[in-house]
Amino acid sequence: MSTVTFPVEGAGLGLRRALLGPLQDHDLSALGFMEVAPENWINVGGRLGRQFRQYTERFPFLCHGLSLSLGAPEPLDRTFLRRLRRFLDEHRIEGYSEHLSYCSEHGHLYDLMPIPFTEEAVDWVAGRIARVQNELGRRIAVENISYYATTGAEMSELSFINAVVERADCLLLLDVNNIHVNSVNHGYDPEIFLDGLPADRVAYIHVAGHHHEAEDLIVDTHGAPVIDPVWQLLDKAYERVGPVPTLLERDFNFPPIPELLAEVATIRRLQQPHETRQAGQQRAS
């Protein structure tokens, strides 16, 4: 197995504005990297900009976009892409990912909507991803999203994801929590789904918490601790794709920083046996 990852390693944490100050008072040596949504930081200056640069000068960073709207029917926002490339270049950020979704229809919808699982949509989205990669001068990753309904599906979610990344020749941001959420909401086996994804295209992994609305309905919130079934699925993912870089997402309801860092430490604890196994395999070959 040969997996292509972004130029980061270990366990990472999503950096939010509410964490800028609190994190400064703690030992962050266990963090391998950080991630931000570029839309929240492009053209931000002053005190916040200086605080942000203190982190980008200390840690490797990735960017995870919110508004590119890869599946939308209107043209790509070329002005935003130019601003995005300048931001990535300025902070020496090589890894960029976006959601395999759309969030606009001649105006922002303020939600990440699922793209219809059709051959026509595969062609459309793959072409747009290829153009984005050309504009940014980088190979990007697309994330498997959580969703709550499908429209006009002609293929499975798994077939759709595989077809898009193959046709666009892009990478995959594997969101383990989203697999768990969708497996409950849509009634499939998460491990079978995981096994069907292209392991050699996984750039990195997301893990997060969620909210149980009902027995058969989970809402992806990023506002709670990661639960045991998601940790177990993450361990399965490492068996499948290797100990690739993995990021903890937390968007609100922040716990005390030691609790947040303890979840990052759990990621490292799960990665390490797979790193040892991988090193042994490389020596044997």
Q: What does this entry look like structurally?
A:
This protein has 285 residues and is α/β, with parallel strands linked by helices. The protein has a single domain, classed as Alpha-Beta Barrel (TIM Barrel), CATH 3.20.20.150. It contains 9 helices and 12 strands. The strands form 3 sheets. Strands 1-2-3-4-7-8-9-12 form an 8-stranded parallel beta barrel. A two-stranded antiparallel ribbon has the order 5-6. A two-stranded antiparallel sheet has the order 10-11. A hairpin with a 2-residue loop joins β10 (211-214) and β11. α4 packs parallel to α5 (157-168), α7 (190-196) packs parallel to α8 and α8 (228-241) runs parallel beside α9 (257-284). The longest helix is centred in the C-terminal third of the chain and has 28 residues, at 257-284. The mean pLDDT is 91.
Question: Which descriptors apply to this entry?
Answer:
about 280 residues, alpha/beta, TIM Barrel, eight-stranded parallel beta barrel, about 40% helix, about 20% strand
